[in-house]
Amino acid sequence: MTKKVKMIIDKKNKSKIICLTAYSKNIASILDRHCDLVLVGDSLGSVLYNFKSTKEVTLQTMINHSKSVRLGIKKSLMIVDMPYNTYRNPKQALKNAKFVMKETKCDGVKLEGGKKIISIVKTLIKNRIPVMGHVGILPQTDKKFSFKGKKLKESERIFNDTKLLEQAGVFSIVLECVETKLSKKITDQIKIPTIGIGSSANCDGQVLVIDDLIGLSESKFRFVKKYANVNKIINNAVKKYKLEVQKKQFPKARHSFKN
Ligand code: KIV
Question: For ligand 1, what atom is nearest to the CA of residue 174?
Fold first, then answer.
């Protein structure tokens, strides 16, 4: 286990783990000052590319954005989502995860799923690739995006998945839209940290999509809190720029070159 990964695990029951997504360098360098973990999420498919589903995100797209994010990160743990269809079996997963680790210099990868992907998770960990789990809503494969743990059978399956992932050696698990009492049960009964998104304050840490948090996207998910209105700030700046160019107030002599 790497020192950085151990630092994340050691936070359990001590202090909350702060995570956010980033898709490029400039944002990543701001997040790095405050976050324990920065995730290059395949949510970039919907946030940046307007894809209907994260299924459309390719490995190369994840690598390109991750390379940019890497430039902005000095101290946080950097985790990259393995996109849909890139970890269908242990052999393919290992080849692709090794490529992602080599190309992006990230600290580990995140895979969606539980029991079905356990042999894949074990293969990556055996090959010293740190893996983060992801249960609850699984955007890569779920048809319905309603919260998880409504029914007993579903709750038991999700709980068992987290136990299996823990036994397989993942260092942390994202709980996406997992019902409040279930997220508490999971967090209390596994030794590795849970990172919640829409899964209540019971989790050991929280993650959000950065564009949602700063009000750049137009997302209206119940679990999002908008901490700023960056859309408005950019809009006002661009409006002012346009006006100054039209009125010939910009550029001034000090913005120009003269022999
Ligand atoms: O893709 C993503 O951004 C994620 C987080 C929301 C957990 O998986």
Answer: 7
My answer on whether omega of the bond before 139 falls inside 30° of 0, hence cis, is: no
83 lines ligand 1 (CB under 6 A): no
- How confident is the model over 59-118, as pLDDT tens digits? 999 999 999 999 999 999 999 999 999 999 999 999 999 999 999 999 999 999 999 999
Q: What domains appear along the chain, each with residue ranges and CATH number?
A: 3-228 (3.20.20.60)
Which residue type is seen at 180? Answer: T
C-alpha distances out from residue 28 to 5, 38, 152, Å: 19, 8, 39
- Tell me if residue 56 is catalytic: no
Nearest CA to ligand 1 atom 8: 41
Which residue type does 26 have? N
Q: Is 42 in the pocket of ligand 1 (CB under 6 A)?
A: yes
